[in-house]
Structure formats: C-alpha cells, structure tokens
Amino acid sequence: APLVRFRNVRKSYDGLAPAVRDLSLDVAAGEFLTLLGPSGAGKTTTLMMLAGFERPDSGDILLEGRPIARTPPQRRGIGVVFQSYALLPHMTVAQNIAFPLQLRRVPRAEQADRVARALDMVRLTGLGERMPAQLSGGQQQRVALARALVFAPRLVLLDEPLGALDRRLREEMQLEIRHLHKQLGVTMIHVTHDQAEALTLSDRIAVFAAGALRQLGTPEALYDSP
Ligand code: ADP
Ligand code: ADP
Questions:
Q1: When you count CB atoms within 10 A of the terminal residue's CB, does the N or C end of the chain come out lower?
Q2: pLDDT tens string 10-45
Q3: Comparing C-alpha atoms, which of 194, 149, 224, 222 is closest to residue 37?
Q4: 160: Cβ below 6 Å to ligand 1?
C-alpha cells in the first residue's frame, strides 16, 4: 500500500475557484516526489492538507491507510519545512530543533542526544547555543531541516525550502537534501516552481497547473520523451 494516498481531493477557499480540484495521487514509501508548477497552481494547498493545516472540502487523504487528523504534524510522524513556519526567534537553535521532541514527549536525556545528532546531520555541529538571528540564511534553513528530521519522521514535507537562498547555496543545499533522503530512507514531498531543482532532486515529479495534476512521472519520462 502507498504511504500517502490522495483520492478525489478538492479544496477551495471562501467560495473562490478551487485551489485543488479532484486530486488523486499515491506516494510510495521512500520516494522523493516533487510537486512542480507555477505560483497559484495548488502545490502548497496540497502540502498543507497533508500536514493537517487545511481540510479538504471533499475526497480523502490517507497516511498509511488512515485519514489525516488535525493534530500537529509532528505527532503523526510528519516533519515540515515551510516558508511560513519559521524558526522561533527567542529560542536557541537547539531549543528550536528540540521543539518537536517536546511535542512528542521524548525524555529529556534523549532529546539532547537527538538534537546533537541532528545538528551533525545538517553540518551545524556546535552551533546549538546560537540564536537564529546569529546564523546566515542558509544555516537557518539547515536548522529548519534539522527540526524536521530530528524525530525520525516517516514523511518530510518541504515547501520551497531553498527559495530564499542564492544560487550557489541553493545548489549546495540540493545536494545535501538529496544525500539526507538517501541516507535516511525517509519519504520526502517537495514543492517548487523551479524545474531544474525538480529534475535534480526527484524520483518522480507531479506537474500542477491551475489546481490540477497535469503530469506525473520520473524526470526522464517527463522531459526526455519527444
Ligand atoms: P502554489 O503553492 O502552487 O503557489 P497555492 O496552493 O498556494 O498554490 O494556491 C492555490 C490557489 O489558492 C491560489 O489561487 C491562491 O491564491 C489560493 N489560496 C491559497 N491559500 C489561500 C488562502 N489561505 N486563502 C485564500 N486563497 C488562497
Ligand atoms: P529547558 O526547557 O529545561 O530549559 P532547554 O530549553 O535548555 O531546556 O533545552 C531544550 C532541549 O534542547 C533539551 O532537551 C536540551 O537537552 C536540548 N539542548 C539544549 N541545548 C543543547 C545543545 N547545545 N546541544 C544539544 N541539545 C541541546
């Protein structure tokens, strides 16, 4: 069975034209799937529904065969890196990363150990006591990634995680995300409007336009065919 299943999912905001219309999509465990498409295509709405932040008007979203509940995503084993879900500025880097562990009531001693390992994983060893404002943009994005990975999630949702970075840093972080995906074997669903980024990172690409899934396939199948 797929890890994630969307079945005929529809969502509109306040009587406007549907942001997502009749979406059916399966995501396999271990897969790196990118939702690609222009601004307004419905990618973020799709991810927000999977995170449990928005509810579909109709249709089903299943995680391991069960409907998505409206509890914090971390409680359901989902790590999120959203642009709108920034670091807490009054907390240290380590406290930010430990936050989902506290939500999940992980014992204190284990928290410190896991935070230290997550910092190593994103190459920020020793920076746990810093405040977010003392880090560069790229480092802050790594902290957000560490926070999403710290509790060994079964699913990680990434919404334009590299959007604010310059090109060189962006390419460096693409390689790191790819490496982490392989190393951890975790399922990742990633949103971008950047076609090159989708091609670099993904096992499969879902192309969205005007709220609809238009194409679905491997990078090769989508872009190498005549
Ligand atoms: P994408 O992530 O592909 O840019 P979105 O899912 O953010 O697309 O948006 C899809 C459509 O839904 C757009 O028309 C957008 O304006 C609208 N939309 C998104 N979020 C809201 C909201 N909170 N309230 C009203 N309309 C929204
Ligand atoms: P408290 O809420 O008791 O004051 P903290 O806010 O200092 O605890 O820390 C929150 C969590 O982050 C704790 O689980 C702690 O073990 C962990 N932590 C704090 N600083 C570090 C660090 N530099 N490296 C690794 N883990 C840390």
A1: C
A2: 999 988 899 999 999 999 999 999 999 999 999 999
A3: 194
A4: no
